[in-house]
From TrEMBL:
UniProt key word Nucleotide-binding: yes
UniProt source species: Fusicatenibacter saccharivorans
Any one of the GO CC terms: cytosol
Similarity section: Belongs to the glutamate 5-kinase family.
Residue positions binding substrate: S49, D136, N148
Domain PUA residue range list: 276-351
UniProt function note: Catalyzes the transfer of a phosphate group to glutamate to form L-glutamate 5-phosphate.
Primary enzyme class: transferase
Gene field: proB
This protein's name: Glutamate 5-kinase
Domain of life according to the entry: Bacteria
Pathway: Amino-acid biosynthesis; L-proline biosynthesis; L-glutamate 5-semialdehyde from L-glutamate: step 1/2
Length: 359
């Protein structure tokens, strides 16, 4: 096996018993497989849900709570218990594991983004398995929509992983939710995430999981765009993580649509807030969208926002306001405003290397 970086995301539905509490046997099974991959020389990162499941009964709830504050409290208790379980299992293989709690928004701040990358790189370089979960106590949207799927895609993209494995309680994506539609057919390979496919993806199947296939598809969209293929497969099949890496697991495989997007461009494409808008004429729109050229000040017809040199701005076609992409601008707004629309040669407004076009 060639040495690879593998990100595995395991959902609540794959870590729990039918009453919603943590299943230690399932955790042991997953860690055994991760240890096998790590021992074979791969870099392995686990994104694990399950904190709420591990904590609610210890906190005196009879069943999995539904109120946000209750879930956050349960997760605060359960996260430690979950890590205790992973640590104990991985210690048997002398593999250190690390807890990292993140939220989607941590990727939007450039310094935090770099820090995540920095510590993950050290952990992987020193043979540890990072175990990531949402920072549930402070999560706002994530607890409602089950965004560990997205988080795992963000991590896989950042690390230029060879594969993102989304382990769940079903063996892949179907044309409809098989739990409610007996005619649903399994989809083996997805080369393009079309609106029809998104419409076929429904919400969570059990009372334990959140997000269902909807969040798995948006995760697959982010990862594949950054150049990382994705496999959705079942955690119930024996040894399925190892089989997924070998290419023999049954599941739905999403081929990478992009090419190994540079980490700096990923930040710009997926997370960077836009500090302003530029509107360009037809010639400039053609140069950007078709000829893969830089944006010159002469092609800009209007600017909006109080942006500064080095900020990320969005670019639109004049008239139709079609979104063309995002880039790092080389001027403060007042300076660009003075020279826009002028044909004298100037430094590019956005250099091609700092540009990411719309899909
Ligand atoms: N088109 C579909 N194909 C397969 N599963 C689907 C589909 N639409 C909805 N689902 C549901 O998604 C569930 C998996 O998501 P979820 O319960 O959130 O799991 P996890 O906890 O692993 O994230 C499946 O059990 C299934 O019921
Ligand atoms: N962060 C929460 C789970 C949220 C989540 O994404 O759940 P799932 O859809 O089961 O992966 C927890 O640890 O309980």
């Amino acid at each position: 096996m060639e040495k690879q970086t593998i990100v595995v995301k395991v959902g609540t539905s794959s870590l729990t018993l039918s009453d919603g509490t943590m299943d230690a046997e399932k955790i042991r099974n997953i860690t055994t497989q991760l240890a096998a991959l790590q021992t074979a020389g791969h870099h392995v990162i686990l994104v694990s849900s399950g904190a709420i499941a591990a904590g609610f009964s210890r906190l005196g709830f009879k069943k999995r709570p539904t109120k946000i504050a209750d879930k956050q409290a349960a997760a605060a208790v359960g996260q430690g218990l979950l890590m205790e379980e992973y640590t104990k299992n991985l210690m048997a293989y002398q593999i250190p594991c690390a807890q990292i709690l993140l939220n989607r928004s941590d990727f939007e701040d450039r310094r935090r983004y770099k820090n995540i990358f920095g510590s993950l790189s050290v952990l992987l370089g020193r043979g540890a398995i990072p175990i990531i979960n949402e920072n549930d106590t402070i999560a706002i949207e994530e607890l409602k929509v089950g965004d560990n799927d997205t988080l795992s895609a963000q991590v896989a993209a950042m690390l230029h992983a060879s594969l993102l494995i989304l382990l769940t309680d079903i063996d892949g994506l179907y044309t409809a939710n098989p739990k409610s539609d007996p005619n649903a057919r399994h989809i083996d390979v997805v080369n393009e995430i079309t609106p029809e496919l998104t419409a076929a993806a429904g919400g969570a199947g059990s009372g334990n999981g959140t997000g269902g296939m909807t969040t798995k598809l948006s995760a697959a969209s982010l990862a594949t765009r950054a150049g990382v293929p994705v496999l959705i497969c079942s955690s119930a099949e024996e040894n399925n993580i190892v089989r997924a890496v070998k290419g023999t697991a049954k599941g739905t495989y999403f081929t990478a649509s992009g090419h190994n997007m540079k980490t700096r461009l990923q930040w710009m494409a997926f997370y960077a807030p836009s500090a302003g808008n530029l509107y360009v004429d037809e010639g400039a729109a053609e140069a950007l969208a078709v000829q893969a050229k830089s944006l010159l000040p002469k092609g800009i017809v209007a600017v909006e926002g109080d942006f500064k040199k080095g900020d990320v701005v969005s670019v639109f076609r004049r008239g139709s306001h079609e979104y063309l992409g995002k880039g790092i601008v080389n001027y403060d707004r007042p300076d660009l405003q003075k020279i826009m629309n002028e044909s004298t040669s100037h430094t590019e407004a956005i250099n091609r290397d700092n540009w990411i076009g719309a899909e």
